[in-house]
Design a protein that fits this description.
about 375 residues, about 0% strand, mainly alpha
Length: about 375
């Protein structure tokens, strides 16, 4: 019952409240109806939207919201007008944006909260919720446009070619009509939105009021229960596997530190001190990416973060640097279909062979 577990439990419940009320899709369509109708830039807007949603909910949930919207967009394009590769680029872009967005905020992915927990506990860093934005958000802002351009070019497309080929197919009406079908926000949607904004505001101002992010999140989830927006049966819809994996990761990581195993392993790596610091950071990032491709990002972070702290101290590096590299690297596999849930959702559309995803994702990794 670590506070981080409570934070993610409450986060899952609030995400379920958004899904049940339809607020998540309303937010997505409200943004898209103001977006460019030029397909290449619409693709970038979808990526930015997905990454933004991933800051506040699981990357799986954000991909599950925006991939169906992307598929609906594709149905409006006549087959003879669609440039070869555009549908693949669009779906993969949305999936990759969901993965990227998760690293931007403290609750975007469990690895980030693991990093903050171990840094606060064993280095006295005292990082608040808002402090993680310094580590993760610049990476999101850099990677979203880079991945957009990369996917267009590797699928043999350019923004102007896509826009000129499809400018007759896509009009603003094709996604504003669905937005209008929602009508004005219902009472329960307004309540969910108000609670979610209040929780976000309290998370951002933790240093002022001193109430922990976990307590704030649990109050938000409790209010949704008391107002009957979410119900007892919604507990069965939660990703309990993720919570148990996260809890196990915290326990294993704490055990590695408390028994001295992490210090022992770090001492075996003291030879790395003869290498340039940037090379050591690069090697740690490579190891994290490799391991994170085959096991869950939570398990990967739980194994490597307790090792990164003493290793950084031995090498004279700021522990926050190596820990942030491990947390971010563990969440960013693009090559394997099983690497992250959003990539699996993209593969489930049936548009791809595993080799297509692998060869493009490997370069991004």
């Amino acid at each position: 019952a670590d506070p981080i577990i409570m934070l993610f439990l409450a986060g899952f419940l609030m995400a379920e409240g958004m899904r049940r009320s339809g607020l998540d899709r309303w937010v997505a369509l409200a943004i898209l109806q103001r977006a460019s109708v030029q397909p290449a830039y619409l693709m970038l807007t979808l990526m930015a939207l997905t990454a933004f949603l991933s800051l506040w909910m699981s990357n799986t949930a954000s991909a599950a919201i925006t991939i169906p919207i992307a598929l609906a967009i594709l149905t409006k394009i006549p087959a003879e007008q669609e440039p070869a590769g555009f549908r693949k680029a669009l779906i993969l872009a949305v999936a990759y944006a969901a993965t990227i967005g998760g690293i931007g905020s403290a609750i975007g992915t469990p690895a980030n909260m693991l990093a903050m927990s171990f840094l606060n506990k064993y280095t006295g860093a005292q990082l608040a919720f808002v402090d993680w934005f310094v580590f993760g958000l610049p990476v999101v802002v850099l990677m979203v446009p880079l991945v957009w351009l990369y996917l267009l070019l590797t699928f043999g497309l350019t923004p102007w070619r896509v826009n000129s080929a499809l400018q007759q197919s896509l009009t603003r009406e094709f996604y504003t009509s669905e937005y209008k079908s929602f009508g004005p926000l219902r009472r329960e949607q307004k309540v969910v939105l108000a609670i979610f904004l209040a929780v976000m505001g309290l998370w951002m101002t933790e240093e002022w009021h001193g109430i922990s992010t976990a307590i704030v999140a649990m109050i938000g989830a409790l209010l949704l229960f008391l107002l009957r927006i979410i119900h007892e049966e919604d507990l069965n819809q939660l990703n309990w596997n993720a919570l148990l994996t996260f809890g196990g990761g915290l326990a294993i990581g704490t055990l590695l530190v408390s028994t001295g195993v992490s210090d022992w392993i770090a001492l075996q790596l003291v030879g790395l001190s003869s290498l340039p610091a940037m090379l050591v950071v690069f090697l740690v990032a490579g190891l994290t990416l490799l391991l994170g491709a085959f096991i869950s990002n939570t398990a990967c972070a739980a194994m490597l973060i307790p090792l990164a702290i003493p290793l950084a101290q031995l090498l004279g590096l700021d522990p926050r640097l190596l820990v942030a590299v491990v947390a971010i690297g563990s969440s960013l596999d693009f090559a394997l279909v099983i690497g992250t849930p959003p990539t699996m959702l993209a593969y489930a559309t049936g548009f791809f062979r595993t080799s297509e995803i692998f060869k493009r994702g490997l370069a991004l990794d």
